[in-house]
Every structure is written in structure tokens, then in C-alpha cells.
Specification:
- The protein is an alpha/beta fold and about 260 residues long.
- It is built from eight helices and nine strands.
- A seven-stranded mixed β-sheet has the order 3-2-1-4-7-5-8, sandwiched between helices. A two-stranded parallel ribbon has the order 6-9.
- Strand 1, helix 1 and strand 2 form a beta-alpha-beta unit.
């Protein structure tokens, strides 16, 4: 695990905030997105979780970590799913004493300029989980065709209805967590390994009584490379959402607690 040794204590207004960015074949994007993240959140720590990218993404991450104590790298042997990469990164951040943990993509679809607004509700003690939302006033998507818009909106609406959740954007992966809230979600109970991981984590946090707030974001299609969305991911999402609700109906799911 290169780049994970403790460096000098971070300083700056966002010290204690960790930004977890999973990567797989993001060599064309990593340097630019890393610089933008560190500029947007002075004092924050960037953790790159690379799943053995064959295009050299991990080597680029190591070079960035060698140049800055605010960049850490977690190397994983192989591609094992987005959710597992996030859980691994979350464990590192929490173990290093993070107070706020942000999750975002490396492909430019999540704008680093929105990071300050994303973490503000947590730092101001107004939320425990903040979702960068495409589907509230002020939010939206760019560069998407009609079919992708319908699939994304339908997926969030389906999950929101079946799981009885208040958030409008349940499939997005641009989020900020209060560390205590994130650590209370049992990693060994999370079944989703793909994009449905986003739905499941919000569901489990909501059941635990987390204060969930949405802030508007403009989601852009990835800058370089191809989308990793597939039919398999959509099918997985359907069955995981139904399974979560079925477990709840049988009394085997997480117990719902009202936000405090």
C-alpha cells in the first residue's frame, strides 16, 4: 500500500476531510482531478483507491503521493467492484481519524468546484450524509441522451418508492459523510458491489437515523474514456433493492430510527 504512511499533520480549513476516489483505468484523468480536488478543499486528504489498473493509473497515483503528503494511495490487486473499493477506502480514512469522508468519481463527472458546498452541511452540523443531487431544484445532467436520463431517474424513483426514502437522487456517487455516521454502517452487511452500492449505503444510513440532505449538482458525462454502466449493473440494482425491502418486511433488515 504505497503512499499511506502518515505525513505531516494537515492544516487548512478542511483538515480532517478525506476524499476517497476509486480508480480503474483513469490515467488520462487522475492528475487533473487530483489537483482540482486539493485546490477546492485546502488541507483535505485525497485517497486514491486503485484496483490494479493496467493503464498505469496506480503509478501516477504513487507519483502524486510522493509529491504531496495530502495524497495517499491504496493499491488493490484486482478489480472487485465499485462498492468494495469504496468500503476499502472508507476503512483507511476512518482508521486515519477522518472527520468527514467524501466519495466521488475520478472521471470528471463530479465537479470538484461543488466540494465545498457538499461538505458544508456536515461542518455546520446540519447533516450526517450529504448527497450531490441531480434531481432537485438547481441540479441536472449534461451530455446525456434521453435513454440514459430515463434509466437514471427511473432507478432513483424505484428505489425511493420501494425503500421508502426521502432523497431524490439515490444512484449518484457524489456524497459527503460524517465519519461517525459512516462508521456506524456495518461494512460486512453491505451486499452491493456495483453502482447499487450507492442506494444501499443511503438506505442503511437513513434507517440508522442519519440526517440526509441533498445539494444540487450538475453532473457531466465523463471527460475521457467510456462509461462503466452496463445492463448487468441495472439488473443487480433491481434485485438488491427488492432484496433490501424483502429483508425489512421479514424483520431481518436494519431497524429504522428517526433522525435526531
Amino acid at each position: 500500500m504505497a503512499g499511506t504512511a502518515r505525513g505531516p499533520s494537515a492544516s487548512g480549513p478542511y483538515a480532517g476531510t478525506w476524499v476517497v476516489v476509486p480508480t480503474y483505468n483513469e490515467a488520462a484523468n487522475l492528475e487533473a482531478i487530483s489537483a482540482a480536488i486539493l485546490a477546492a478543499l485546502p488541507g483535505a486528504t485525497l485517497l486514491v483507491v486503485d484496483d490494479g489498473s493496467p493503464d498505469g493509473t496506480g503509478d501516477i497515483a504513487d507519483r502524486l503521493a510522493a509529491a504531496s503528503p495530502l495524497v495517499r494511495v491504496r493499491h488493490r490487486a484486482r478489480k472487485a467492484g465499485l462498492g468494495r473499493a469504496y468500503l476499502d477506502g472508507f476503512g483507511v480514512a476512518l482508521g486515519e481519524g477522518a472527520r468527514v469522508v467524501v466519495q466521488m468519481d475520478a472521471d470528471g463527472s463530479h465537479d470538484p468546484a461543488a466540494l465545498a458546498a457538499l461538505v458544508a452541511p456536515i461542518l455546520e452540523d446540519r447533516a450526517d450524509l450529504v448527497i450531490g443531487s441531480r434531481y432537485i431544484a438547481g441540479g441536472g445532467t449534461a451530455d446525456w441522451g434521453l435513454a440514459r436520463r430515463i434509466i437514471s431517474r427511473s432507478g432513483s424513483l424505484f428505489a425511493r418508492t420501494v425503500l421508502r426514502l426521502g432523497a431524490h437522487d439515490l444512484t449518484g456517487g457524489f456524497k459527503a459523510w460524517r465519519a461517525a455516521t459512516l462508521s456506524a454502517v456495518p461494512a460486512d452487511g453491505v451486499r452491493a458491489g456495483g453502482y447499487v452500492f450507492q442506494i444501499e449505503m443511503t438506505y442503511r444510513a437513513s434507517c440508522a437515523g442519519a440526517r440526509v440532505v441533498e445539494v444540487p449538482i450538475l453532473f457531466r458525462d465523463r471527460l475521457v474514456g467510456q462509461s462503466k454502466m452496463s445492463r448487468r449493473i441495472i439488473v443487480e440494482a433491481f434485485f438488491v433493492v427488492v432484496g433490501l425491502r424483502w429483508d425489512e418486511l421479514r424483520g431481518r433488515g436494519p431497524k429504522r430510527t428517526k433522525p435526531t
